[in-house]
Write a structure and sequence with these properties.
The protein contains 5 helices and 39 strands. With about 800 residues, it is mainly beta. It has one domain (about 55-820): Maltoporin, Chain A (Beta Barrel), CATH 2.40.170.
Length: about 800
């Protein structure tokens, strides 16, 4: 080779040698070919972990992803703690919300446990098992929201057994105990738990459980069985109350629950059973002011209530995917409650226009046995083309309640003396059957038509037997019933474009009503009603705007129609009115959502309702006894109510401080008739709620919630402020200090303040943190009473109730699965 020659080096694989050999011969001269054979040699590389810092919230389409980090919770902590430690996640009333939006159902990797009930589901999953949460938000064309939270587990946490056992004891024989065991399999879950305590820790509110279970079925039905969403009623709003309910008085509580979930390719089954028992001692002193037409009544009461309440709930859900286009759902809920109450009440009542007062002393023994069973079935057939949906829905409600009330009343004032000793036995039965057919047909890529045919058949009856065990008077029977038959058909059209949706339709209803008592009978001739419905939604890059109008007829409730006389409470004797008419409700809603580039988001909701012929109270003065009795009538004039709710928030992962703000204003108007005079009532309500989170690294979390409610009725105003502070501090890898403080400030003429605080300090011990030892103090400041001030449409009350005295507990918690590692 020459010293100053130019060389070119070409490197190729054996796979291309046949192709390039001819090309080299034509382009290059004096080329030389060498074959290099490489031997296989493997080198073991060390494991490399790539860490990526993700935003806490990521939105893709209609899904909001909530990323979870290992440092978000302590060892073995339940997933529920994430809703205390992460801003934007909140828990209240046994349900949860994300960025202010309530969650109707929770699933784990797409599977429901404990019927999708939020609190039970989140207590059954560990926080360190979660990879992320998927918050799926859908707004159906009728304006109803369906919010589903799916929790995605880490790949190595989808199989195994885990649980915990906790026991604690303290002064004055106070105690706490808790145990749970959970099994995750390839096809489902098995979960069991049991708790007991004497320190006023609440369990699961059975009414919340019932509501969420039923709403879950209906929301699923709307998403799968109706393109537009025609299954009413709409979900219950609870924006005005966001704080956790607490036990009244002093309580000893026990509960237990079991869940089984199994899912295969075509079948999905989940069932749970839950029961609780509570023994309560409650004492309350209250002052209530009742407003009538040009008259106000003042009621001062001292009450003691000792009760025992037992409750059993069962829920079964089955989904069968018959084929790719056909599915069936079956659901059954059972609730049984047994309650025994012993009540003593001393009341002094007076009127603004009567100088003399009336003294009422009442003692009663009440026993209640109630059973509620609901069965639901849906069958859905989807067409070969998108938008074709045929569905059948059937629901059967059976409610039974047996009440026994043995009471002794003594009434005394300058004009009269009265003594009552009576036993009232009451039986209530309610059976409702609902059948609905829905058919959706797309006319083009932009137009869809949907029709429904609905039938509801209701029978409600009350049988009452009043006897006098001492006087020996003949018993007085009462047998009242209501039968309603409602047939409704409607047709709706959906127009859909990239930025706008329009839905409009008309429903036609047929009513037949029959009501019966022992003395009277009322049959309403068939009524035919037309009910329009329209909704428009417009979407733009930074948000959306929607408006909704609906008109619907409403039937009076059975309580207002056929309640028989009951004098067990002489301050509240109410009698039903057999001749009430249906009334009409018109609703207009306006919703908007805005989002800015710097992460701020704003929501605004305005709702206006106009009621024609609404059911109102009619009050009758009884001068001999100096008390009011009341009945019901249709309002002779329409009334209107409105409310405005708004929220704003900014949540950033990199910021140590985040905030969430919400509020609302309500005006509730009504009419009341007293002594043949009709007068308006107006309740004005405003509330503000600020929720903030301060997080310093991963060692300290402070969550603050401030809520204020302003209420004005009949020129009487009250202001309730509630401040909740909850802090969690991790000291090193083992120690922790938790504290909670609740400050209530009530203003109504005078200002009352109460402070409730709890604290717990503890340490994780042994390998894998298998043991936790802690010292807890409940009601640190030994607050003696809990003060509550509230207002309704025509009353204002101040209540002072007993509360649990200070308790110090030593607690031990064991995590059995950690011992095997």
């Amino acid at each position: 080779m020459a010293a100053h020659s130019t060389y070119k080096l070409l490197v190729q694989s054996d796979c291309c040698a046949a192709i390039t050999e001819a090309w080299l011969a034509d382009t290059l001269k004096n080329n030389h070919r060498f074959n290099i054979n490489l031997e296989e040699k493997s080198i073991q590389l060390k494991e490399v972990v790539v860490k990526e810092k993700k935003d806490r919230f990521e939105r893709r389409g209609d899904t909001l992803f909530v990323n979870i980090a290992d440092t978000d919770a302590r060892p073995h902590a339940a997933a529920a703690t994430l809703f205390d430690r992460i801003n934007g996640l909140n828990s209240s009333f046994g349900s949860v919300s994300i960025l202010g939006e309530d969650v109707q159902e929770i699933t784990i990797d797409g599977k429901r446990i404990f019927g999708g009930i939020s609190k039970l589901t989140l207590e059954s999953i560990r926080a360190d098992m979660i990879e992320r949460m998927e918050f799926i938000q859908k707004t159906l064309a009728n304006g109803q929201k369906q919010n589903l939270l799916n929790i995605k587990l880490k790949a190595n946490k989808k199989d195994g057994i885990y649980g915990d056992i906790e026991a604690g004891t303290g002064e004055n024989r106070n105690f706490i105990g808790r145990a749970s065991v959970n099994k995750i399999t390839k096809n489902g879950f098995i979960n069991a738990f049991s708790t007991a305590n004497s320190i006023n820790e609440t369990g699961i509110d059975t009414k919340v459980m019932d509501r969420i279970s039923l709403n879950t079925f209906r929301n699923t039905l709307n998403a799968s069985s109706s393109v537009i969403g025609l299954y009413e009623p709409r979900t219950i709003e609870n924006n005005t109350e966001k704080l956790e309910p607490r036990f009244r008085g002093i309580n000893k509580y026990f509960d237990t629950g079991l869940n089984f979930t199994h899912e295969q390719k075509k079948l999905a089954f989940d069932g749970f059973i839950f029961g609780h028992f509570n023994r309560q001692t409650f004492r309350e002193a209250s002052t209530q002011q009742q407003f009538y037409t040009n008259v106000s009544q003042t009621i001062n009461s001292q009450m003691q209530d000792t009760s025992r309440i037992g409750n059993i709930n069962a829920n079964i859900n089955l989904k069968w995917n018959i084929n790719e286009r056909t599915s069936m759902r079956v659901s059954s809920q059972l609730n049984h409650q047994n309650q025994s109450r012993s009540v003593t009440d001393t009341t002094i009542t007076g009127f603004s226009n009567v100088p003399a007062n009336t003294l009422i002393i009442s003692r009663s023994q009440k026993d209640i046995n109630a059973l509620n069973h609901i069965s639901q079935l849906s069958l859905v057939q989807k067409g070969r083309r998108g938008g074709f949906v045929s569905s059948l829905y059937f629901r059967l409600d059976n409610q039974f309640q047996a009440d026994s009330n043995h009471f002794d009343n003594s009434l005394q004032n300058p004009a009269a003396r009265l003594h009552q000793n009576q036993i009232i036995n009451k039986r209530q039965n309610n059976t409702t059957q609902t059948v609905q057919l829905v058919q959706s047909v797309p006319l083009s890529s932009q137009f869809l038509i949907e029709g429904k045919l609905k039938g509801m058949f209701e029978n409600y009856s009350i049988r009452q037997h009043t006897s006098w065990p001492i006087e020996g008077n003949p018993p007085v029977p009462a047998a009242n019933s209501v039968n309603n038959q409602i047939i409704e058909t409607g047709i709706y059209v959906l127009y859909k474009r990239a930025k706008i949706d329009i839905i409009s339709g008309l429903a036609y209803a047929y009513w037949h009503i029959h009501r019966q008592t022992l003395k009277d009978c009322f049959t309403d001739s068939p009524s035919f009603l037309f009910n329009p419905f329209t909704k428009i939604e417009y979407r733009f890059p930074s948000g959306k705007l929607s408006a909704r109008f609906a008109q619907e007829p409403l039937l009076p409730g059975a309580i207002a129609l056929i309640t028989p006389p009951d004098s067990s409470n002489l301050n509240q004797i109410t009698v039903g009115n057999l001749y009430l008419n249906p009334y009409q409700q018109k609703t207009f809603e306006l919703n908007t959502h805005l989002q800015t580039r710097n992460g701020h988001q704003f929501n605004l909701n305005f709702n206006y309702k106009r009621l024609s012929g609404a059911v109102i109270n009619e009050n009758f003065y009884q001068p001999d006894l100096n008390i009011f009795t009341s009945g019901f009538i249709n309002a002779p004039a329409p009334v209107s109510n409105w409310n405005l709710n708004f929220s704003a928030y900014q949540i950033k992962l990199k910021s140590k401080f985040s905030w969430f703000f919400m509020g609302g204003m309500y005006q509730i108007n009504s009419l009341i008739k007293t002594r043949e005079a009709l007068s308006p009532l107006q309740l004005n309500l405003a509330y503000l709620n600020v929720n903030t989170t301060l997080k310093l690294k991963s060692t300290f979390n402070l969550k603050a919630n401030w809520e204020s409610q302003f209420r004005i009725i009949s020129n009487n105003g009250i202001i309730n402020h509630t401040v909740n502070l909850k802090s969690e501090a991790d000291i090193g890898n083992k120690w922790f200090v938790d504290s909670g403080l609740r400050l209530n400030i009530n203003q109504s003429g005078t200002t009352s303040t109460q402070l409730l605080a709890d604290a717990e300090v503890g340490k994780f011990l042994l390998k894998n943190n298998a043991l936790k030892v802690s010292l807890a103090t409940v009601n640190i400041f030994n607050t003696k009473q809990q003060i509550t001030i509230e207002q309704g449409n025509n009353y204002q009350s101040t209540m002072r109730a007993n509360t649990l005295p200070r308790v110090i507990l030593l607690k031990f918690t064991v995590y059995p699965e950690s011992w095997k590692k």
